[in-house]
From TrEMBL, chain A:
<keyword id="KW-0808">Transferase</keyword>
<dbReference type="Pfam" id="PF01144">
    <property type="entry name" value="CoA_trans"/>
</dbReference>
<dbReference type="InterPro" id="IPR004165">
    <property type="entry name" value="CoA_trans_fam_I"/>
</dbReference>
<protein>
    <submittedName>
        <fullName>Glutaconate CoA-transferase subunit A</fullName>
        <ecNumber>2.8.3.12</ecNumber>
    </submittedName>
</protein>
<dbReference type="InterPro" id="IPR037171">
    <property type="entry name" value="NagB/RpiA_transferase-like"/>
</dbReference>
<dbReference type="GO" id="GO:0018730">
    <property type="term" value="F:glutaconate CoA-transferase activity"/>
</dbReference>
<comment type="similarity">
    <text>Belongs to the 3-oxoacid CoA-transferase subunit B family.</text>
</comment>
């Protein structure tokens, strides 16, 4: 059964140095507050997995939490580049970042295989592209029934998945709706999971198009109102588009980024670990 | 003109997989003007979105609120795209070559140490492989229109006629490339992109100067009709509603 914990406790107990961590949310319900808690707790050597490493991973990478990134599209959606990601890949700042690059279809299927308890997934993808030359987790396979050549990608089984959802009840059953991305698959593929929610309620009211993650499929639930900001939580608040635009100038320079970490992630006066 | 020309290429009833930016602008303009029954599909998991403004990203809440169905990301790719249920893939590009191959990964020939790191593949490789046909909308310059892309993120016509079949790709690939200067189509014999249409006020020489390969011109070169008042008004209204 899922345990209801505080955000700091949840991250402290479930996310360890060196873990493979998947923080998902496809534009909607991105677990930003949990990402900043991981920075605050000074995690290192993480392998970060995410289909769309946007601002949340730019922050974790810039803070030096990651040594590797597994992804399929990295950018600030609708705005431009991720400058901390680029600085880490091109200049090794603050620590070198290894990358493992896929397509969305490849990543989605890797989670599906992980959630299904299978060693790999098969898809009609990657043929003729340059991605398999640089990514050794893409192989060709022959269909034993038709002889067709297909792509195989290994299952993703992260140590921990972190997602954000709208609501949970006191027993830890989680309800989410709207764009549900690949979050359910990420939770089921992972050994442990932390779900931050807008609110914990006595009783979950049914909502059209909802996904339920039963309490027994989740490790910990933490109530974190506004935990997806600057992304959005359908039914609760809208996306903060201005934040995404401002991030471009904050993330561009190492100085302005470090100042942001000191001011916004750590409480004033807290000693900040510098690398 | 580019958005309007791209919108005109989309006709009613077709199911269209839409990328953000120019493709999304054109698809929404088409739905607002001549193709109200165009079905817009976004990779965030929305089938049949009907937004009344331009979405800020592929996951804008308005796409989910106005959709016929909201589904998971694995479902979009596995159930809807891969089996060939989508008519048109509508993509942008950072770099495009004379066979319509698209690069959105890195500029420069060293993947590990690129001149410019781009966002990467996203949904594009499988959109380019599996939709019945692909339209590309991109601004034309010597930097973006190159003889051969530095990195093949999404396959167009490979190195020429017959390559798609050899690679097992199911759709027809890029049948239309719409730029700010005109429209290019693949030559039926060679699959090389040739200039087939000029936008109002643009000369062939100007298009050649903005192309990084020796551009061939179709013998049936035509002119794009000037935008109508209705098209311009709708485009302005869409942009205004999105502010």
């Amino acid at each position: 059964m899922a345990e209801i914990v505080s955000l700091a406790d949840g991250v402290g107990r479930l996310v360890h140095d060196g873990d493979m961590v998947a923080m998902e949310g496809f534009t909607h319900l991105i677990p930003h507050a949990a990402g900043q808690e991981i920075i605050r707790q000074g995690r290192e050597n993480l392998t970060l997995v995410r289909m769309t490493p946007d601002i949340i991973y730019d922050q974790l990478i810039g803070a030096g939490c990651a040594r590797k990134l597994v992804f399929s599209w990295g950018g600030n959606p609708g705005v431009g580049s991720l400058h901390r990601f680029r600085d880490a890949v091109q200049n090794g700042w603050p620590v070198p970042l290894e990358i493992e690059e896929h397509s969305h279809a490849g990543m989605a299927n890797r989670y599906v295989a992980g959630a299904s308890g299978l060693p790999f997934a098969v898809l009609r993808g990657y043929s003729g592209t340059d991605l398999p030359k640089h990514t050794d987790t893409i192989k060709q396979i022959t269909c034993p029934f038709t002889g067709e050549r297909l792509a195989a990608v290994p299952a993703l089984n992260p140590d921990v998945a972190v997602i954000h959802a709208q609501r949970a009840d006191r027993a830890g059953n989680v309800q989410m709706w709207g764009l549900v991305g690949v979050q359910k698959e990420a939770v089921l593929a992972s050994r442990r999971s932390l779900v931050t929610v807008e609110e914990v309620v006595d009783e979950l009211e049914p909502v059209p198009g909802q996904v339920i993650l039963p309490s027994w499929a989740v490790t910990c639930v933490a109530e974190v109102p506004h935990g997806a900001h600057p992304s959005y939580a359908q039914g609760y608040y809208e996306r903060d588009n201005a934040y995404y635009e401002e991030w471009d100038s904050i993330g561009r320079k190492r100085d302005s980024f470090q100042e942001w970490v000191r001011e916004k992630v750590f409480a004033a006066g807290t000693e900040v670990k510098t690398r | 003109m580019m958005s309007i020309a791209a919108a005109r290429a989309l006709t009613g009833g077709k199911r269209c997989f839409v990328g953000i930016g120019l493709p999304s602008t054109a698809a929404n303009l088409a739905r607002r003007t001549h193709a109200p029954d165009l079905v817009l599909i976004y990779e965030s998991g929305t089938l049949g979105s009907k937004p009344d403004r331009l979405p800020a990203s592929i996951g804008d809440g308005i796409l989910a609120e106005t959709a016929d169905a909201v589904i998971s990301v694995p479902e979009v790719f596995n159930y809807w795209l891969q089996p060939g249920r989508i008519d048109i893939g509508f993509l942008g590009a950072a770099q495009l070559d004379k066979f319509g191959n698209i690069n959105t990964t890195v500029i420069g020939d060293d993947y590990a140490n690129p001149k410019v790191r781009l966002p990467g593949a996203g949904g594009a490789p499988e959109i380019a492989a599996s939709c019945r046909e692909v339209f590309v909308v991109v601004r034309q310059s010597k930097r973006s229109f190159v003889e051969q892309v530095d990195f093949v993120t999404s396959v167009g016509h490979g190195r020429g006629k017959g390559d798609r079949e050899r690679l097992g790709l199911r759709g027809a690939g890029p049948t239309l490339v719409i730029t700010d200067l005109g429209v290019l189509r693949p030559d039926p014999e060679t699959s090389e992109l040739v200039l087939s249409q000029l936008h109002p006020g643009v000369e062939v020489e100007q298009v050649r100067e903005a192309t990084g390969w020796e551009l061939k011109v179709s013998p049936e070169l035509s002119n794009t009709e000037a935008p109508t008042a209705e098209e311009l008004a709708n485009l302005r209204a869409l942009k205004e509603a999105s502010k």
